[in-house]
Amino acid sequence: MDGWRAAAACQEVDPDLFFPVGTGSPALVQAEEAKKVCGRCSVREPCLRSALAQPHPPSGVWGGLTETERRSLERRARRRADDRR
């Protein structure tokens, strides 16, 4: 287990909060609640880096971003890298 996980704010919350099911309003509200927990977390950055480093991106909210938001972040980073070449 990554050392940062022991200090994660999500350790004090029901893990299901970070894995909303569906794309409707209840799932969006749940994701926003999970992001609030991430917003007060001292290890948000290592959590996000860990999620981005996975060969198969994990589902749910990690490092304050949903799976969709992380994919978007990765696409932007790839475009910036391509623009520098």
UniProtKB/TrEMBL annotation:
<dbReference type="InterPro" id="IPR003482">
    <property type="entry name" value="Whib"/>
</dbReference>
<feature type="region of interest" description="Disordered">
    <location>
        <begin position="52"/>
        <end position="85"/>
    </location>
</feature>
<dbReference type="InterPro" id="IPR034768">
    <property type="entry name" value="4FE4S_WBL"/>
</dbReference>
<keyword id="KW-0804">Transcription</keyword>
<feature type="binding site">
    <location>
        <position position="47"/>
    </location>
    <ligand>
        <name>[4Fe-4S] cluster</name>
    </ligand>
</feature>
<protein>
    <recommendedName>
        <fullName>Transcriptional regulator WhiB</fullName>
    </recommendedName>
</protein>
<feature type="binding site">
    <location>
        <position position="38"/>
    </location>
    <ligand>
        <name>[4Fe-4S] cluster</name>
    </ligand>
</feature>
<keyword id="KW-0963">Cytoplasm</keyword>
<keyword id="KW-0805">Transcription regulation</keyword>
<feature type="binding site">
    <location>
        <position position="10"/>
    </location>
    <ligand>
        <name>[4Fe-4S] cluster</name>
    </ligand>
</feature>
<comment type="function">
    <text>Acts as a transcriptional regulator. Probably redox-responsive. The apo- but not holo-form probably binds DNA.</text>
</comment>
<feature type="binding site">
    <location>
        <position position="41"/>
    </location>
    <ligand>
        <name>[4Fe-4S] cluster</name>
    </ligand>
</feature>
<keyword id="KW-0411">Iron-sulfur</keyword>
<feature type="domain" description="4Fe-4S Wbl-type">
    <location>
        <begin position="9"/>
        <end position="72"/>
    </location>
</feature>
<keyword id="KW-0408">Iron</keyword>
<feature type="compositionally biased region" description="Basic and acidic residues">
    <location>
        <begin position="67"/>
        <end position="85"/>
    </location>
</feature>
<keyword id="KW-0238">DNA-binding</keyword>
<keyword id="KW-1015">Disulfide bond</keyword>
<comment type="similarity">
    <text>Belongs to the WhiB family.</text>
</comment>
<keyword id="KW-0479">Metal-binding</keyword>
<dbReference type="Pfam" id="PF02467">
    <property type="entry name" value="Whib"/>
</dbReference>
<keyword id="KW-0004">4Fe-4S</keyword>
